[in-house]
Amino acid sequence: MSRHDAQALILAAGKGTRMKSARAKALHPLLGVPLLEHVLRAVQGVGVEPVTVVVGHQADGIEAAFAGRGLAFVRQEPPLGTGHAVQAARELIAAGRARTLLAVNGDLPLLRSQTLAALLDAHRRGGGAATLLSVVLEDPAEYGRVLREADGSVRAIVEARDATAEQKRIPEINAGVYAFDVDRLLEVLGQLRPQNAQGEFYLTDVVGLLRAAGRQVGAMTAADGREGLGVNSHAELASAARLLRARRCAELMAAGVAIEDPETTFVGLDAEVEADALLRPFTLLEGRTRVAAGAMVGPFARLVDTTVGRGAQVLDHCLLRECVVEAEASVGPFAHVRPESRIGVKAKVGNFVELKKTRLGEGSKAPHLSYIGDATVGPGVNIGAGTITCNYDGVHKHPTRIEAGAFIGSDTTLVAPVTIGEGAYIAAGSAITEDVPAGALALGRARQVVKPGWAEARRQKAGAAKGPRGEQG
């Protein structure tokens, strides 16, 4: 998107009282990132700079969460409304007075960069002192109403709590996004007064002050009214999440991704899915997950910071975190792949198998009921059901190495550190505590003892001990 000659101010000092949470509203998670992150990405997507964030409640936590992003922070103490927030940033705004000020409420996660760019363009063409973003809603609820003149210019914005019954019937609301001529804004900013029931300084009152000074104020109505929906409660947070999930899935499907049930599919902002991949119902792709073309994920699968190669399958009820599944490999159902694991080309991790910090070689398979941790497994290895690598001695973790073509029998315990040589066989039920040479057979189990007739003799003895009615003597 083209760069605009503007600076940005994001207002994120509010406590979010209606959230009824100890966490600052700006930090509540939404589609895998903090609420404020959505607004920040929309603003930065326009190419404006610098970007200043006004913080107040839990300022230290917000500044820490967004450190290293090239942002400037201003503290609003105490937070006394949106107008007071802009006053707190007055010096930084004035330093960039040659640039239009884009002021945005920090609780608008559905806002798009394209809409902000259009607002800045409309402001430049209109040549007024300010241009605000409005949206039209069927139920304006508690949002501030936009009062227009006959020529379409804005006369004032009235907050819902201060509006008359007639004004509350107006469907056009203020979205909390503004483009200001900085010099004109600074002329009236100091005139703000807390003339409302809450004793706060409303940024919306700037509109009336500009009009009183003979300045023009315009408005651009967003095509999608949902972009003006703020988040002030957990219910509104959940509603925003639903809308963002739908938007994300719609974008992916338009790009060629097959999503069987968008309503139950979660794809985070930083996840990437290539065309011709298939996402089945109740799939969650979080963090920087990558799913290649031809891969299938789900149903009921959660992937976090995971890469899935071309043609690979992650089947039902799997959890994968910080791992790699290479091309044409298969995982699941009911598998858990933990961080730093890598599943090779055409390898298989089956049901109720857990991998931890393990590399499974090309074509190798652990089909069921095994724990493989801190292991390097070569190509073409078969790991039988019930195999366990005993990698932890209570103090340290130790590695297991299984070389190419080895066969690990069912119910085997591999006590690390241990190496199983190329092509070696481990008999079922063995406990292996020493290295096994290439091509060897290793057994590590108790010798079987058979006592003929023992079971029949036991039954006869038990019967003799009972009385004539089958009772104990």
Can you lay out the helices and strands and say which pair or pack?
Blueprint: E1 6-12, E2 29-30, E3 33-34, H1 35-44, E4 51-55, H2 59-65, E5 72-75, H3 82-88, H4 90-95, E6 100-105, H5 113-126, E7 130-136, E8 145-148, E9 154-158, H6 165-168, E10 172-180, H7 182-189, H8 205-212, E11 217-221, H9 234-254, E12 258-259, E13 266-267, E14 272-273, E15 278-279, E16 283-286, E17 290-291, E18 296-297, E19 301-304, E20 307-308, E21 313-314, E22 318-321, E23 324-325, E24 330-331, E25 336-337, E26 342-343, E27 348-356, E28 359-360, E29 365-373, E30 375-377, E31 382-383, E32 388-390, E33 400-402, E34 407-408, E35 413-415, E36 418-420, E37 425-426, E38 431-432, E39 441-442, H10 454-464
Parallel strand pairs: 1-4, 1-6, 4-5, 7-11, 12-15, 13-16, 14-17, 15-18, 16-19, 17-20, 18-21, 19-22, 20-23, 21-24, 22-25, 23-26, 24-27, 25-27, 26-28, 27-29, 28-30, 30-33, 31-34, 32-35, 33-36, 34-37, 35-38, 37-39
Antiparallel strand pairs: 2-3, 6-10, 7-10, 8-9
Question: What does this protein structure show overall?
Answer:
A hairpin with a 2-residue loop joins strand 2 and strand 3. By secondary structure, the chain is α/β, with parallel strands linked by helices. Helix content is 20%, strand content 29%. It is elongated, with a radius of gyration of 32 Å. It folds into two domains: 223 residues, Spore Coat Polysaccharide Biosynthesis Protein SpsA, Chain A (Alpha-Beta Complex), CATH 3.90.550.10; 202 residues, Hexapeptide repeat proteins (UDP N-Acetylglucosamine Acyltransferase, domain 1), CATH 2.160.10.10. The strands form seven sheets. Strands 12, 13, 15, 16, 18, 19, 21, 22, 24, 25, 27 and 29 form a twelve-stranded parallel β-sheet that branches. A nine-stranded parallel β-sheet has the order 14-17-20-23-26-28-30-33-36, with no helix packed on it. A seven-stranded mixed β-sheet has the order 5-4-1-6-10-7-11, with helices on both faces. The protein is built from ten helices and 39 strands.
